[in-house]
TrEMBL record:
Name used for this protein in its record: Tripartite tricarboxylate transporter substrate binding protein
Matches recorded under Gene3D superfamilies: Bordetella uptake gene, domain 1, Periplasmic binding protein-like II
InterPro entries: BUG (IPR005064), Bug_dom1 (IPR042100), TAT_signal (IPR006311)
PANTHER family, sorted: BLR1237 PROTEIN (PTHR42928:SF5), TRICARBOXYLATE-BINDING PROTEIN (PTHR42928)
Keywords carried by this UniProt record: Signal
Length: 328
């Protein structure tokens, strides 16, 4: 009897020891993260706000491995977001998500290649920015009311370009049409880099552009800014009035940018990434650069992003339904 009890006791001890040893590699793996280069996928071409934020993160990352920015434009950012959704949940593939890829597109596309919520784990809400309505200098309208009058006098003749169907800039234009009672035609491009040359050349009338991207061109006098899409004027461009204060009260279409990883990524890795991004984007030189670009840092916890995303999905689903906009 004594021998049997002794044997069982040792078996239990050995099993416990084996379990402890099995847990060590997993713990060490999380502690060692990152052990190889990290890929930050941006669903838009270089030059826009998502790309700018990704490259700041890449340049300032201090956890011992390089961050490679991978631009995968197309389908309103869906191609890039799907790439991350289908990647291994190990923290080595990140999505620079936008209001389009993670709140608008679910309502705009009849068939989505990913679930905006279930296929991702939120990491951090990096920044937000108002969009700005810009027109070619040849357009006679000097303010929003004059543009609305011009559009109503020439229904279907004015055009607004966007970086793609389903982007925040597309929905900003659809919201404008709905609230102003105009019929300005949407002309989608495969990214901002393709749309801007046509606008500068006068081939399209106008564009809703992210403020960071548009400000340099506006300051050069190549485009005219008529109004920002936020509820209040931007500190980066206080001389540009809001669209809301020019006869469209309640008009608001703000862009935001956030980082997501594939669903089921270990919490320890999410926490480590969140801490590093909070560190990077609170640095004085980074904050100064963001302000110059018209980007307002938000930051905070993964839970803060998750809550904000839920509210944005509900908001834009209503806008898309009311406007009748469809991506396919």
């Amino acid at each position: 009897m004594y021998v049997r009890m002794f044997t069982r006791r040792h078996v239990v001890a050995m099993l416990a020891a084996a379990a402890s040893l099995a847990a060590i590699p997993a713990a060490q793996a999380n502690d060692a993260y990152p052990a190889k280069p990290i890929r930050m996928v941006v669903g838009f071409p270089s030059g826009g706000a998502p790309d700018i934020l990704a490259r700041i993160f890449s340049e300032k990352f201090s956890l011992g491995q390089p961050v490679i920015v991978d631009n995968k434009p197309g389908a309103g950012g869906n191609i890039g977001a799907e790439t991350v959704a289908r990647s291994a949940p190990d923290g080595y593939t990140l999505a620079l998500g936008t209001v389009g890829t993670h709140s608008i597109n679910g309502a705009l596309y009849s068939k989505m290649p990913y679930d905006m919520v279930k296929d991702f784990t939120p990491v951090i809400l990096l920044a937000s920015t108002p969009n700005v309505l810009v027109v070619h200098p040849s357009v006679p309208a000097k303010n929003v009311q004059e543009l609305i009058a011009l559009a109503k006098a020439k229904p279907g003749q004015l055009t607004f370009g966007t970086p793609g169907i389903g982007t925040s800039l597309h929905v900003a234009g659809e919201l404008f049409n709905t609230m102003a009672g105009t019929k300005i035609e949407h002309v989608p491009y495969k990214g901002r880099a393709m749309a801007i040359p046509d606008l500068l050349g006068g081939h399209i009338t106008m564009m809703f552009d992210n403020l960071p991207s548009a400000l340099p061109v506006v300051k050069e006098g190549k485009l005219r800014a008529l109004g920002v899409t936020s509820a209040h004027r931007s500190a980066s461009a206080p001389d540009i009035p809001t669209i809301a204060e020019q006869g469209l009260p309640g008009y608001e279409a703000t862009s935001w940018f956030a980082v997501f990883v594939p669903a089921h990524t270990p919490k320890e890795i999410v926490v480590k990434l969140n801490a590093e991004m909070n560190r990077i984007f609170t640095q004085p030189d980074v904050q100064a650069k963001l302000k110059t670009l018209g980007l307002d840092p938000v930051l905070g916890t993964p839970e803060k992003l998750a809550e904000y995303q839920r509210s944005e999905i509900a908001k834009w689903a209503k806008v898309v339904k009311d406007s009748g906009a469809k991506a396919d």
